[in-house]
């Protein structure tokens, strides 16, 4: 009987350790979906996330792209689930390094980040990370430095 209690105690201790170690992973934000909208003067890229996240965003050239760095998140979407647009050719997403996830948006021409922000939950939607991109000429394009945002509108 003492041996069974000892085995039972060891099992419950091991299970508790697994829960404590995995809790941060289970509690991390999840990107549930993404969408793109073309407007007259901009293209909007939206990530739906389960909670507010801090993010950094910047542009790069050769080839032209927009980079969004996030804390480590879970992914419930696949790249093929997001429609392309007149400005967005495609994108890649995943774990950049432990603790950090990244979205790279491949664009068809030079862009500037007109606006980027995080919207809090509304009646019909959860948190949304919103990026408005505006096309610019190659001469006007300037690679940008990472800018951090945690603003919730």
Detailed description of the structure:
By secondary structure, the protein is of the alpha+beta class. The protein has 1 helix and 10 strands, in the order H-E-E-E-E-E-E-E-E-E-E. The strands form 2 sheets. It has a 5-stranded mixed β-sheet, with no helix packed on it. Strands 6-7-4-3-10 form a 5-stranded antiparallel β-sheet, with no helix packed on it.
Largest sheet: 5 strands, mixed
**Termini separation:** 60 Å
How large is the radius of gyration? 20 Å
The helix tally amounts to: 1
Q: Could you say which overall geometry the principal axes of the C-alpha atoms support?
A: globular
Helix content: 10-25%
Structural class: alpha+beta
Which blocks of ≥5 consecutive residues have pLDDT under 50?
A: 9-25
Strand segment count: 10
Could you state the order of secondary-structure elements as H and E?
A: HEEEEEEEEEE
Mean pLDDT over the full residue set: 82
Largest sheet, spatial ordering of strands: 5-1-2-9-8
Strand percentage lies at: over 45%
Draw up the topology in text.
Elements: H1 2-26, E1 30-38, E2 43-49, E3 55-60, E4 65-71, E5 74-75, E6 88-97, E7 100-107, E8 111-119, E9 127-135, E10 147-149
Parallel strand pairs: 1-5
Antiparallel strand pairs: 1-2, 2-9, 3-4, 3-10, 4-7, 6-7, 8-9
């Amino acid at each position: 009987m003492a041996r069974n209690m000892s085995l039972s105690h060891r099992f419950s201790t091991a299970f508790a350790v697994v829960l404590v170690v995995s809790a941060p992973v289970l509690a991390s934000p999840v990107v549930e979906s993404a969408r793109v909208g073309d407007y007259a003067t901009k293209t909007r890229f939206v990530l739906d996330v389960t909670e507010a996240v801090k993010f950094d965003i910047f542009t790069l050239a050769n080839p032209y792209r927009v980079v969004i760095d996030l804390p480590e998140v879970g992914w419930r979407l696949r790249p093929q689930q997001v429609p392309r647009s007149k400005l967005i050719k495609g994108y890649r997403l995943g774990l950049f390094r432990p603790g950090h996830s990244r979205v790279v948006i491949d664009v068809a021409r030079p862009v500037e980040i007109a606006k980027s922000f995080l919207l809090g939950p509304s009646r019909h939607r959860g948190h949304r990370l919103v990026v408005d991109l505006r096309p610019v000429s190659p001469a006007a394009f300037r690679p940008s430095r990472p800018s951090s945002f945690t603003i919730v509108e």
